What we know:
Number of domains: 2
Shape: globular
Distance between the termini: 26 Å
Radius of gyration: 19 Å
CATH class of the largest domain: Alpha Beta
Strand content: 25-35%
Oligomer: single chain
Number of helices: 7
Largest sheet: 9 strands, mixed
Helix content: 25-40%
Bound molecules: N-(5'-phosphopyridoxyl)-D-alanine
Structural class: alpha+beta
Amino acid sequence: MSRTVYVNGAFVPEEEASVSIFDRGFLFADAIYEVTAVIDSKICEWEGHVARLERSLGEIGMGMPMSSEELLEIHRELVKRNDMEEGAIYLQITRGAIDRDFVMPKDLEQTVVLFTQAKKLTGEKKGLRVVSMPDIRWARRDIKTVQLLAASMVKTEAKKQGKDDAWMVEDGFVTEGSSNNTYIVTAEGKIITRNLSNSILPGITRKSVLRIAEEMKMEIEERPYTIEEAQKATEAFMTAATSFVTPVLEIDGVELGDGTPGPVSKRLCEVYIEEARKASC
Ligand code: PDD
């Protein structure tokens, strides 16, 4: 069944949606995106996503094309028109369309595109097997731009190797997964995750999960760690908007703990979903 999508002010069937071939999102990846989860037909973590959207746009010299309330209304309208109970909403804002030029034009009309991806998000998590790969992305990974070629390449390579995802490594330390933040848990129960910087995306799920862990009196250390240290962990997991907290069972062929999802990630996932449901709007 065809979805209803949003493009530049109009809700249209997906077959009728189009943007210009001169769009700078298409030609230069001159665009910012967000992916927001939907549970019980409601939008999760809206405040976090819209705050990061505004920051990302600002970092590349763009403003918001409309107010947060108007954007939220479009999200809600898409959920309604597509009768979606659970899944993701993808939002992309580009600088707009103009003849190709490396210099960023000023005051273009931005392109705004949103679409839904219905899928079950809240089922049992079976856990992932990951492989490490060099992080070949650019130096401003804190900005959520649509230039996802490197992430797409490492994920595809991981799948080719029969695994689920890649953990990217730079200067000997894990940065993040192809589209998620990563964590390890020590034998003492301490959660270690890479500190925020230009090297990783400040995950909205990461922020909530760390807050929940803190409230549960778990010890947290935000610092870089190596693949070798991760392989010695009793548990590992990743977080992202549409996968919440997902256990990682194997890193570069080394099984963690007893090779099944660990108690820390399981508990964090349960509480995260519970809270996300309550706070959704
Ligand atoms: N990806 N790191 C990277 C590189 C990501 O692409 C993402 C999200 C995250 C987690 O951020 P959040 O918790 O805010 O979803 C970390 C989205 C889900 C995607 O590209 O589909």
